[in-house]
Write a structure and sequence with these properties.
about 150 residues; 5 helices; globular
């Protein structure tokens, strides 16, 4: 059975390392990108089942990236993580297609649970069961078992 593919986009190597290691240990195949351009290039080569992206990137932000990913795959689940979360940013991200918005630090077990819910919902939609996408956002602090970083 194929491991689910996740495209992880973050310009901080330590954040990518921590999330990649946790997701890999949770049964996911992870491809990484540090910029919008790298993410688009990787997405063209890597059949991602879900994208996990930081908000601020060196050559743009998630609001630039999400519409381009959605143009390639309208049903692709996208989770946004940010160190600079505001209600306005979360609303705009949701309008552009983010399925969930997390603030850093990210509680990794909760992130994996959200990924599994989104994948299950996407699978049900693909099977014609018309399950609604669980679009939510959270701009609150998280308890232990998390990964923190300074970036955006």
């Amino acid at each position: 059975m194929r491991r689910p593919n996740i495209l992880l986009v973050d310009d901080e190597p330590s954040i990518r390392f921590g999330i990649r290691e946790y997701l890999s240990g949770s049964g996911f195949e992870v491809a990484e990108a540090a910029t919008v351009a790298q993410a688009l290039d990787t997405a063209a080569k890597f059949p991602a089942d879900l994208v996990l992206t930081d908000f601020r990137l060196p050559d743009g932000d998630a609001l630039d990236l999400m519409p381009k990913l959605r143009a390639r795959d309208p049903g692709l689940p996208i989770i946004l993580i940010t160190g600079f979360g505001t209600v306005e940013m979360a609303v705009k991200a949701m309008q552009l297609g983010a399925d969930h918005v997390y603030t850093k630090p990210v509680e990794l077990p909760m992130l994996v649970a959200q990924i599994q819910r989104l994948r299950s919902s996407a699978g049900q939609r693909a099977a014609g069961q018309n399950a609604p996408a669980p679009r939510t956002w959270s701009l609150t602090a998280r308890p232990p078992a998390r990964l923190s970083g300074q970036g955006g």
